[in-house]
């Protein structure tokens, strides 16, 4: 099987950066790692990577069986999975920040979004009970082989994921943003699957 040419090109163009990622030590702070990955992802073809991840999500048995899916509204350089909204057999929801918690707000065609204080598009619909969810797509800058994610530092999702133990939780990231180990704190919550543009899932 021939290797993915886009991945090969990316490896060649960013070899020194990705070699450094292989040897990231736990002592390196999350703040430093966030800076690394935010800089690196600006060099990626994020739309193409997003489309590949989107198709790999659709191939998941968990997703195919799900009825109520929570997405996130992407910022400029984030993985963009809004194409999943075309899957008419699903009910979709988006998060809304309320102080220190995340609310679950239903989406339908015509739902209005407004920028939050964190500069993220949030739905104007009324929140519902999180228990309705059976599949949650969680944003991240990076992930590790133990299914921990590097978020943005607010802790919103770590607190939220504890409230929905029965939902399948996945993180979509670029294949080369899955590293051996991230620094982990007591409040960090791992997800069930890491879905990348090169592999359908990392269990």
List its traits:
203 residues, alpha/beta, six-stranded mixed beta sheet, three-stranded mixed beta sheet, 6 helices, 11 strands, globular
Characterise the protein shown here.
The chain is an alpha/beta fold. The protein is built from 6 helices and 11 strands. It has helices at 5-13, 15-22, 30-41, 46-58, 61-65, 156-161; strands spanning 68-70, 91-98, 101-107, 113-115, 121-123, 135-137, 142-144, 149-150, 168-172, 178-179, 193-195. The strands form 3 sheets. A 6-stranded mixed beta sheet has the order 3-2-1-6-9-11. The protein has a 3-stranded mixed beta sheet with strand order 8-7-10. 30% of the residues are buried.
Helix fraction by DSSP (H/I, runs of at least 4): 25-40%
| Order of strands across the main sheet | 3-2-1-6-9-11
Mean of residue pLDDT values: 89
Shape: globular
Instruction: Report Rg.
Output: 17 Å
How much of the residues is beta strand, in percent? 15-25%
Summarize the structure.
This protein has 203 residues and is an alpha/beta fold. The protein contains six helices and eleven strands.
Write the layout of secondary structure elements.
Elements: H1 5-13, H2 15-22, H3 30-41, H4 46-58, H5 61-65, E1 68-70, E2 91-98, E3 101-107, E4 113-115, E5 121-123, E6 135-137, E7 142-144, E8 149-150, H6 156-161, E9 168-172, E10 178-179, E11 193-195
